[in-house]
Amino acid sequence: MNCPWCAFQGTPRGLHAHLAEAHPEGVRFETRGNRRVYVVECPICHSGYDQAIKPGLDDPEFLVEFEREIRLVGFDMMVNHLLGEHPEQQQEAGSSEPAETTQTND
Residue 75 in contact with residue 20, Cβ under 8 Å? Predict the structure, then answer.
């Protein structure tokens, strides 16, 4: 798969890890009324997805403690969106270009 922000190419799992490491700004946090949400917007079609973060504003340390995990969930949504809506972002099978990969220990 091709990163929508840079020249990275890799597997869906590799892209997921790459997005979290290289493009954390791709998932942003907002306060709407009395709740916090994470927002993911496709840089290709600008389609967006947002989801409330629980426990909301009641626990100010929650976002600090779980920011990375929440971003990973958001980037999971991004990878699924790219797979379903932007097949041109998928690396062509048999491509002569080497794919950059990122190894994770999870």
Answer: yes
User: Could you tell me the residue ranges of all domains in the chain?
Assistant: 12-89
Map tokens 């020249």 to a residue: 7
Q: What is the pLDDT of residues 60-86, one digit of tens each?
A: 788 889 999 999 999 999 999 999 999
Is the distance from CB of 23 to CB of 5 less than 8 angstroms?
A: yes
Q: Is the peptide bond before 98 cis (omega within 30 degrees of 0)?
A: no
**CA 32 vs CA 66, 77, 86: distances in Å:** 19, 21, 30
pLDDT at position 16:
96
The rounded distance, in Å, linking the Cα atoms of 106 and 99 is 21
Handedness of CA 55, 56, 62, 68 (dihedral sign): positive
Gap between the Cα atoms of 2 and 41, Å rounded: 16
Q: Is the pTM of this model over 0.90?
A: no
